[in-house]
Amino acid sequence: MSTPAKRRLMRDFKRIQLDAPSGVSASPVPDNVMYWNAVIIGPADTPFEDGTFRLAMQFDEQYPNKPPLVKFLSTMFHPNVYATGELCLDILQNRWSPTYDVSSILTSIQSLLNDPNISSPANVEAANLYKDHRSQYVKRVRETVENSWNEDDSDEDEDGEDEEDDDE
Amino acid sequence: MASSDPSEWLQTRLPKLSQLDSLQRCLICKDFLKAPVITSCNHTFCSLCIRQHLQSVSNCPLCKAEQFESNLKRVIILEELVSCFRELRPQLLSLLALQDSGEAVMEPPPPKDIEVVEISDDDTSKGPDLVQCPVCSKSMSAKHLQQSHLDYCLRGEVEPPAASALLKLTRSAKSSAERKRGGISLFFLAQKRARPSPPPKEEINHEAFYFNEVHKHHHEVKRLPKIDFSSLSTVKVKEKLLNLKLLTQGTRPQLELRYNQFYLLYNSNIDLSRPASELELRQKLNQWEKSHQGFSAPKAGSTIYGDELKYKALTDKDFPIRGWLKKYREEFTTLTQTARATHAKKKASAIDVPSGTTTPESTTQSPGMTTSTQLQSSTVAVNEVIELSSHELEKQFFPDSKQDANVAAASSADEKPHFAATESLSPARSLAYLGNAAPDSALQREGSQKIAEEELYDFSNSMLA
């Protein structure tokens, strides 16, 4: 049944398809518009550059009056991302506004990558390295970037033509 | 229920209409404003959307200024403007459609292989392989939904029956432009044939309504009051519901939810120029209850995650990340490609803008040759040409580039200023959501000014050479 939340999500989908922000993409899972998958490319000229970070989003019928749950599925090393992949971002909690949509959420997460808020870290180690040992921090981040490529088996094949062939 | 997006105008002869379109939408539901009301901070939303928001948070969703329901004011002229525009929109879109831009137009490509799909209104027909369209709730195969149906549904159109799709196929030998036109007319023909046309909607004269029928502008109904449930017995609550001809069954929380939702529907309905009847409101309320979790028994057999992934919220400790990634591997591959493509495109266009404006003459002259005195005198030339808009400048440089139909290349004289604007629009817009639009758009402007200045330097250098 069509509900305001679902209609809004379909609008968000149309929006992100027609006018996608740079380096992010998202779509609802095939059988349920309340669950979305998303990919954020690490911004250029940052340690996260070219990472292909996967996320999942879960909306409920209160959207957009309530924010979605957002979770990194790729392993992250970032001061504001918990080990579980959940992230600590004000606009997804107390500073949420119903004017946000999927595009703006993903854009915010993208810019959070290189602009962490270290005052209330979700990952203390990442926050400390970021503050005091930047080169080590960068090294750890680069590792997650490389991992993010490996998660997709078919990634080495840029054309993605034989993605069906390499079922494990 | 027409679902549309402002960016549809970007592929027309008047791309700026996307702004006009965008400005008439509610920032909360992103649909065209319905019963628009203005806040004391001068921001406009659908009456229902903002009232709903204010139930939980007392601030403006856009600027965060403190806000109360009692301050909301109806904007009659805006409602009329929006309905006027909405009525004209489909016609305008087709009238202004780019004729021969071919592949550059972001219209969905015609389905490659046409499969005949039975689309039934009957919910019970939902077999194991069928999924429901989230917009119109019709059941069909997931493939058909994604490849064809959704595009029509989101545009608020009826999907042409499979028969017309086949007809379209037989004409596919003709030129693409011709086929396109043929396709559209066929679509309407098919629609005409398929069903007796619905009784024509009563034409509304928005002008007459606003200027002459002033007596119709205000409705003789009182708003429903907010109820402080903590001081009311269940019997009293039921009494209140009964007075409004609402159902009185259900648990106490359900009764409260029911009243509150009806309160929203009722009070926002009053803000409409042509309000719905109370009967319609009660039907809407029933609809809402059906989809609200507060009223539904826990659903059995949800198929969200497939069998092994059932009932897991993203925040569950044992959410199966591996399983999820595996289940949606194909989706993620596609998403990665899409994200990479936009990433690369923006990167490329950022490089293209300055280099694309370099004239052949200026490239023959090495910039290193320019002495500082030349540069100084060139500023005079800069001041002279500064009168010319960059738009006209480019026209001078690229008199022929108009023929370049590829919008994506964005090097054509007419397209380019617009293209640059829309490019900068999307980040600016998404940041506007975050409430700091001003510094960012200022930055964008600065950026484009800088580029314009660089162009002028190139230009004056070439003149001096």
From TrEMBL, chain A:
Keyword DNA repair: yes
Short name of one Pfam family: UQ_con
The keyword Nucleotide-binding belongs to this UniProt entry's keyword annotation: yes
Keywords of this entry: ATP-binding, Chromatin regulator, Cytoplasm, DNA damage, DNA repair, Nucleotide-binding, Nucleus, Sporulation, Transcription, Transcription regulation, Transferase, Ubl conjugation pathway
UniProt EC number: 2.3.2.23
Cellular location(s): Cytoplasm; Nucleus
InterPro entries with a match to the protein in the record: Ub_conjugating_enzyme, UBC, UBQ-conjugating_AS, UBQ-conjugating_enzyme/RWD
Gene3D superfamilies assigned to the protein according to its UniProt record, in alphabetical order: Ubiquitin Conjugating Enzyme (3.10.110.10)
GO cellular component: cytoplasm; nucleus
Composition bias type Acidic residues, residue spans: 149-168
Gene Ontology BP, a term: sporulation resulting in formation of a cellular spore
One MF term in the entry's GO annotations: ATP binding
UBC core domain segment(s): 4-150
Top-level EC class as recorded in UniProt: transferase
Xref: CDD domains: UBCc_UBE2A_2B
Superkingdom field: Eukaryota
Annotated region (Disordered), positions in chain: 144-168
Active site (catalytic residues): 88 (glycyl thioester intermediate)
Family per record: Belongs to the ubiquitin-conjugating enzyme family.
Protein name: Ubiquitin-conjugating enzyme E2 2
TrEMBL record, chain B:
Organism: Australozyma saopauloensis
Keyword field contains ATP-binding: no
Region Disordered, annotated ranges: 343-377
Composition bias type Polar residues, residue spans: 355-377
RING-type domain residues: 26-64
Known catalytic reactions: S-ubiquitinyl-[E2 ubiquitin-conjugating enzyme]-L-cysteine + [acceptor protein]-L-lysine = [E2 ubiquitin-conjugating enzyme]-L-cysteine + N(6)-ubiquitinyl-[acceptor protein]-L-lysine
Pathway(s) it belongs to: Protein modification; protein ubiquitination
Name of the protein in question: Postreplication repair E3 ubiquitin-protein ligase RAD18
Keywords on record: DNA damage, DNA repair, DNA-binding, Metal-binding, Nucleus, Transferase, Ubl conjugation pathway, Zinc, Zinc-finger
EC number: 2.3.2.27
Location of the protein in the cell: Nucleus
Recorded GO MF terms: single-stranded DNA binding; ubiquitin protein ligase activity; zinc ion binding
Lineage of producing organism: Eukaryota, Fungi, Dikarya, Ascomycota, Saccharomycotina
Sequence similarity: Belongs to the RAD18 family.
PROSITE patterns: ZF_RING_1 (PS00518), ZF_RING_2 (PS50089), ZF_UBZ4 (PS51908)
